[in-house]
Every structure is written in structure tokens, then in C-alpha cells.
TrEMBL record, chain A:
<protein>
    <submittedName>
        <fullName>Heme ABC exporter, ATP-binding protein CcmA</fullName>
    </submittedName>
</protein>
<keyword id="KW-0813">Transport</keyword>
<dbReference type="Pfam" id="PF00005">
    <property type="entry name" value="ABC_tran"/>
</dbReference>
<keyword id="KW-0201">Cytochrome c-type biogenesis</keyword>
<keyword id="KW-1278">Translocase</keyword>
<feature type="domain" description="ABC transporter">
    <location>
        <begin position="5"/>
        <end position="202"/>
    </location>
</feature>
<dbReference type="GO" id="GO:0022857">
    <property type="term" value="F:transmembrane transporter activity"/>
</dbReference>
<keyword id="KW-0067">ATP-binding</keyword>
<dbReference type="InterPro" id="IPR003593">
    <property type="entry name" value="AAA+_ATPase"/>
</dbReference>
UniProtKB/TrEMBL annotation, chain B:
<feature type="transmembrane region" description="Helical">
    <location>
        <begin position="193"/>
        <end position="216"/>
    </location>
</feature>
<dbReference type="GO" id="GO:1903607">
    <property type="term" value="P:cytochrome c biosynthetic process"/>
</dbReference>
<keyword id="KW-1133">Transmembrane helix</keyword>
<dbReference type="InterPro" id="IPR026031">
    <property type="entry name" value="Cyt_c_CcmB_bac"/>
</dbReference>
<keyword id="KW-0201">Cytochrome c-type biogenesis</keyword>
<dbReference type="GO" id="GO:0015232">
    <property type="term" value="F:heme transmembrane transporter activity"/>
</dbReference>
<dbReference type="Pfam" id="PF03379">
    <property type="entry name" value="CcmB"/>
</dbReference>
<keyword id="KW-0472">Membrane</keyword>
<feature type="transmembrane region" description="Helical">
    <location>
        <begin position="20"/>
        <end position="40"/>
    </location>
</feature>
């Protein structure tokens, strides 16, 4: 279980362009932080840098557990979950096949996958191929994999865009539960999250 | 290890379904094997002489067929991010993908190779060696092809690029395998070719996952 994420003096460049520099952010267990900024300010890049998918130009990203600092690679392989712009679902496979694989791959069990499907009102859809789901349903399926796995840091990139009001509320409840259990959330959003969260300005 | 099994099973299911899976590769293989004699003339004695070689070369081409999308689909739909955050390193992910590719299309093709060679009039005694070469060669083709697919990630017209990257790498195993088959058929020394083929296959399996993982990381960055 992660206790803190420490981002120090982080700078990210894409090509020749410096997106931002000197970013400091500490996220502790039970906290949520929301990244705000104009389009192209580097919110997605920051999330990908924390996930280790993108190399920052300067600065460091460190992870701590209750026992002390741990290797970033270990933290990422065991404690970090991410939902990017895309849902990461194969259109030719059934919703259950995808949810089951993604849950097992990130350390969950079949039972936790079923429970998460229940939370997101998915059981009726599980036998359908992903191509038959609407954008909102696909997003719920992608969110269910977060709830189904035991990972403590969630990186969310515009997680709620395709969701309707009722589903946003339901997802808010899931996020609140995650935080109450000692999880952390780092999200990039345009609409406010339905949970208390700190705002972090990215770019100028 | 458990995660690797979960991933391998998923990749197998995907490889089986990808573009018709083994059926399409087998059909393509049959087409090439039928077309080549039409181009080279159909005198039985001439065909019999080149039959194992044709069966072997067509295998390499058929192996290319379904490789293009090996990483591309996961890259496009965001699954590759998720695979990169899994409990197994990207090197292991690459191994699972190539292994699944081999099981779903390389192995069925290896079993079809002797049928094709017999059809063309090859001597039955080379069949066991042909299957062995096809199995080992197919494994090398799958891993080298995966390397090409990973390097071509994110590029337009990736399919053509994969072929251009991969076909030169296919040359050594094709030469070694054909050497072994020719030698065996003609009663000449043949073990050298087979051993070189096996060595090449081992090298490809051992080294290409490192390059595939690096190429994937580069594409994600």
C-alpha cells in the first residue's frame, strides 16, 4: 500500500517545447488532487510521467510505503492504476473477457471483478462484445477495472467525460470509498470531481 | 508467473481471432504454394527438386501476414499502457505476444508444410525434418516479426514497414533451413544447417524481447 507520492521540481518537454517546469506536488494516502489547466498544458503528460510511460526532462517522482521509500518500478508494477483517454478495450472481445483479464493482470480476482461490475451497473452488459457498448458503457467498464484491482494510486485522465449524471454520482461514491480506504487519486478534469479534492494548476 | 499465464491466454485468444487467425494464414500459405509452381513451370522432376524450398519460403511469407498488428492494436486502443503497468515487465509481455502468435499461426503452418511439400512432389523422407525446421523457423519468424511490429509502432503504412524491416532478418533462417533440407534430400551433410537454424532461433527468442520492449517504451514516451 502506497503512503505518498512525491513529485519534486518536475519539468516535462514534448519535442523542443517545455510544457511546464518546477512542479512540486505531494499526494498522501486518502488524498485526491485535480490537475487543472488549459488544453495542451501538460496534464496528460504529467499523468503519464507519474505512470512511468514518459520520461520527465527534469525532477523526480518518488513513491513511499509505510515501510519507507520503494523503487518507482515496483510501485508502478504493483500499486498504480491508470485510465487514459482511451478505454483500453478490444472491440472484438466480450465485456467480461476484457474486465476479467484487466482485473487479473493488475492483481485482482474474478470475485473482485464481478463485484466491481455490480458497482458500475454492468452485469447485464458483460456478455456483449465491447463494440456493442456505448461510449458511456465502455467508460464504466474501464472504470470498473480500477475498482476491481487492489492498487492504491489511481491516475485518471478525464474520467467522467462520457458519463451521465447518475453514473457520475455512482463513480463519485466509488472514488470516495477508495480514498477512505487509504487510496490516492490524481486526476485531470475539466468538470469538478464529485469528491473533495485539491486543485493543482498546470502551466501558466 | 500467474500474470504471464493470464496474458498468454488472452494473447492466444486474440491471435486466434486476429484477421481470421490460423485459417487465413493457412489459406494464404496454400495460395503461395499453388502460385509458385505456376510461375516456375510444372515439370514434376523440377518441382520435386524445389518443393521443400518452396514450402519453406512460403512459410516465412505467411508468417509475416498477421504480424503487423501484433502491437499496433494495443497501442492504438490504450491497452499497451495497461500492459506496461502490469506485474510483468514489457519484455515478458513481448514474449507472451510472440509465443501466442507462434502457437496460433506458426505451429499450424508448420503442420501444413509437409502437406504442401508432398503436393509438390517432394520425397516423403524429408517430411520430419521439414516439420522440425518449420517449427523452429516459425518461432524465429514470430519473434523477429514481433520486433518489426514493435519498431513500426505508430508509423503510417506500418505493414509495409514491418515487411521491409523483417524480411532481411528472415534471410538467415531461410538459408539455414533450406540448406538443411537440400542436404538431407540429396544425401549430403545436413546437420550443420539445422544446428545453425536452431541457434538462430534461440538467439532471436532470447534477444528480440529486449528490443521489442525498448521499442514499445519508445513508442509510449
Amino acid at each position: 500500500m502506497l503512503r505518498a507520492v512525491l513529485i519534486q521540481e518536475l519539468a516535462i518537454s514534448r519535442g523542443e517545447r517545455r510544457l511546464f517546469s518546477g512542479l512540486n506536488l505531494t499526494l498522501r494516502a486518502g488524498e485526491a488532487a485535480v490537475l487543472v489547466g488549459r488544453n495542451g498544458a501538460g496534464k496528460t503528460s504529467l499523468l503519464r510521467a507519474v505512470a512511468g510511460l514518459l520520461r520527465p526532462a527534469e525532477g523526480s517522482i518518488a513513491f513511499e510505503t509505510a515501510e519507507g521509500p520503494i523503487e518507482a518500478d515496483t510501485a508502478r508494477a504493483e500499486q498504480l492504476h491508470m485510465l487514459g483517454h482511451q478505454d483500453g478495450l478490444k472491440s472484438s472481445r466480450t465485456a467480461w473477457e476484457e474486465l476479467r483479464f484487466q482485473t487479473l493482470w493488475t492483481g485482482g480476482t474474478e470475485e473482485s471483478a464481478r463485484a466491481a461490475a455490480q458497482r458500475f451497473d454492468l452485469p447485464r452488459l458483460l456478455d456483449l462484445e465491447v463494440r456493442r457498448l456505448s461510449a458511456g458503457q465502455r467508460r464504466r467498464l474501464a472504470l470498473a477495472r480500477l475498482a476491481a484491482s487492489p492498487r492504491s494510486l489511481w491516475l485518471l485522465d478525464e474520467p467522467m467525460a462520457p458519463l451521465d449524471a447518475a453514473q457520475r454520482e455512482a463513480f463519485g461514491a466509488v472514488m470516495a470509498e477508495h480514498l477512505a480506504a487509504g487510496g490516492m487519486i490524481l486526476a485531470s478534469v475539466h468538470d469538478p470531481l464529485p469528491i473533495p479534492a485539491r486543485s493543482v494548476e498546470i502551466g501558466q | 508467473m500467474k500474470a504471464f499465464g493470464v496474458l498468454l491466454r488472452r494473447e492466444l485468444a486474440l491471435a486466434w481471432g486476429r484477421g481470421g487467425g490460423p485459417l487465413l494464414a493457412l489459406t494464404f500459405y496454400a495460395c503461395v504454394v499453388v502460385l509458385l509452381p505456376m510461375a516456375s513451370g510444372r515439370a514434376p522432376e523440377r518441382l520435386a527438386a524445389i518443393a521443400p524450398g518452396i514450402a519453406w519460403l512460403a512459410l516465412a511469407l505467411a508468417a509475416l501476414l498477421s504480424l503487423e498488428r501484433l502491437f499496433e492494436r494495443d497501442y492504438e486502443d490504450g491497452t499497451l499502457d495497461l500492459l506496461a503497468l502490469g506485474p510483468a515487465p514489457l519484455e515478458a509481455v513481448a514474449v507472451a505476444k510472440c509465443l501466442a502468435q507462434w502457437l496460433a499461426s506458426g505451429a499450424p503452418l508448420a503442420l501444413a508444410a509437409p502437406v504442401a511439400a508432398l503436393m509438390l512432389g517432394a520425397e516423403p523422407k524429408v517430411m520430419p525434418l521439414l516439420v522440425l525446421c518449420a517449427l523452429a523457423g516459425g518461432l524465429a519468424f514470430a519473434f523477429l516479426g514481433g520486433l518489426g511490429a514493435a519498431l513500426a509502432l505508430g508509423s503510417k503504412r506500418g505493414g509495409l514497414l514491418v515487411a521491409v524491416i523483417v524480411l532481411p532478418l528472415f534471410a538467415p533462417p531461410v538459408i539455414f533451413g533450406a540448406g538443411a533440407l537440400d542436404g538431407y534430400g540429396a544425401g549430403l551433410p545436413w546437420t550443420g544447417g539445422l544446428l545453425l537454424l536452431l541457434a538462430y532461433c534461440v538467439g532471436a527468442v532470447a534477444l528480440s524481447p529486449l528490443a521489442m520492449a525498448a521499442a514499445c517504451r519508445n513508442a509510449l514516451d
